[in-house]
Amino acid sequence: MSNAKRVSLAVLLLMSVVAMPVAAGAQDFRPLKGSYALYSRELGDPGPPTRGDAKLALSLTGPLAKQLFTHLGAAATVHVECSEDDGVTRTRGALSCTRDKTGETHCALGFDIAKGKAIAGEVDC
Fold first, then answer.
1. Contact, 57 vs 118, CB < 8 A?
2. Is 37 exposed, middle or buried (0-12, 13-18, 19+ CB in 10 A)?
3. Mean pLDDT of 11-28
4. Residue 103 CB coordination number (10 Å)
């Protein structure tokens, strides 16, 4: 399978997991706001994706990021020192969401395409 097909499959998989309705008929799928990067090695020292080492980093913004931040809840691991502008970062597993003092929110998560598992989508502070 080509890297482009793997990436497309990974993006579709992540979009379906993130946007999956909680109960049948609960909500329709909605478009996402954000950006992505394909890379190899590590986020702090990335290289071009290869057949054996391809990773996807997603940065989500807008309403979905705000909903994810809320659903992570106060029980999530909280890192005040990781945020700029006196914001708060909540983390559970590979999902990390930051809300700044103005209310702007972004979330990051990643996917190791070769291994088929979720990974961090941004460099830890």
1. no
2. middle
3. 51
4. 9
- Counting Cβ atoms within 10 Å, is residue 104 exposed (0-12), middle (13-18) or buried (19+)? middle
CB 103 within 8 A of CB 114: no
What pTM value is reported for the model? 0.73
52: closest CA among 118, 115, 117, 121? 115
Q: Tell me the CA end-to-end span of the chain in Å, nearest whole number.
A: 35
Q: Average pLDDT, whole number, for the chain?
A: 81
Contact 98, 105 (CB under 8 A): yes
Residue 85 backbone class (left: φ over 0; alpha: ψ -120 to 50; beta: rest) = left
